Amino acid sequence: GFTVTVFEADAKAGGYLRYGIPDFKLDKRFIDRRLKVMEEEGVEFKTSTQVGKSGSMFASEALVEIINTQEVVDDFDATLITIGARAPRDLHLPGREGVGIHQALDFLSLQNRAYCGERNECRDIEPIIAYGKRVVVIGGGDTGADCVGTANRQGARSVTQIELLPKPPEHRSSSEPWPLWPKVLKTSSSHLEGCDRLWSINTNRFNLVDGIIESIDCSKVEWVEEGGKLKMQPVLGSEFNIEADLVLLAMGFVHVVQEGLVADLGLELDPRGNIRTAGTFHSSHPKVWASGDARRGASLVVHAIADGRAAAEAMMRGL
């Protein structure tokens, strides 16, 4: 066997499961139970320990120990990078710099940290509160739904979720027979708790008053098939305005955070901006492997778990 050490920049291990998914969707006791089993098996967790310049995006820097990336690689026989793909997709529109416009993960993480008693770890970060506000969530996926549910629980005045893509059908299409994954409308408990859902909506501009978000200029689009692909076309005269006090960007993630340890090690990236690996999960560095979203891009937790197990086996064969 091998001795295993896990470096975690945040106060507790668990990553996106702990800090990205709300408690009403995932009880963190299940994470703690699994971590306890791993510790009893001999895995050592060094939390509040950041490898390289860029790690935790939320914890107060005063509470995090920063260690040199090269020293970690030199001190261990093999290093596996499992930092996820946390570079968020943004909307570079007029007014984006306004107060009250935030990335979804910032909002969700701060709520999770407050709920589990980590207020001190976030003491240098301005809280993001939905209470009494008109909240607009841009993005119609699972993260957007989590923002809807969290905003409702914080006491938002109203919640509107807008999505660029067209509304999915309610039933499986004949073009997607089992076992293909059906692209059907997903209505979560968060939606049932209350929100307005708008489809085929393009965001054009963030309107600010004294530097603070006041409303969003939007317009409708239609999707037409052209050359076997759907192409977006604006609907003339469809412009409208949504009043907003808080805007949450939930449009997914583009690739691994490249600053910090990835840059420190000079790792090669694939065309999508993630860590390039061979079939053995081996990176361009002889002592470094990568798995999960860090190498494949943002995906489901089940893929990250499977990737981690396969990467561990690949590393054992390589040692």
Can you lay out the helices and strands and say which pair or pack?
Blueprint: E1 5-7, H1 15-19, H2 29-40, E2 44-46, E3 49-51, E4 65-67, H3 69-75, E5 79-81, E6 87-88, E7 101-103, H4 104-115, E8 134-138, H5 142-153, E9 158-162, H6 189-192, E10 196-198, E11 201-209, E12 212-226, E13 229-234, E14 240-243, E15 246-249, E16 253-255, H7 261-264, E17 288-290, H8 293-296, H9 301-318
Parallel strand pairs: 1-2, 3-4, 5-17, 7-15, 8-9, 8-15, 9-10
Antiparallel strand pairs: 6-16, 11-12, 12-13, 12-14
Helix pairs in contact: 4-5
Description:
- The chain is of the alpha/beta class and 319 residues long.
- It folds into two domains: 5-86 and 254-318, FAD/NAD(P)-binding domain (3-Layer(bba) Sandwich), CATH 3.50.50; 90-251, FAD/NAD(P)-binding domain (3-Layer(bba) Sandwich).
- It is built from nine helices and 17 strands.
- The chain has helices at 15-19, 29-40, 69-75, 104-115, 142-153, 189-192, 261-264, 293-296, 301-318, and strands at residues 5-7, 44-46, 49-51, 65-67, 79-81, 87-88, 101-103, 134-138, 158-162, 196-198, 201-209, 212-226, 229-234, 240-243, 246-249, 253-255, 288-290.
- The strands form six sheets. A five-stranded parallel sheet has the order 7-15-8-9-10. Strands 11, 12, 13 and 14 form a four-stranded antiparallel sheet that branches. A two-stranded parallel ribbon has the order 1-2.
- The longest helix has 18 residues, at 301-318.
- The model has no long low-confidence stretch (mean pLDDT 93).
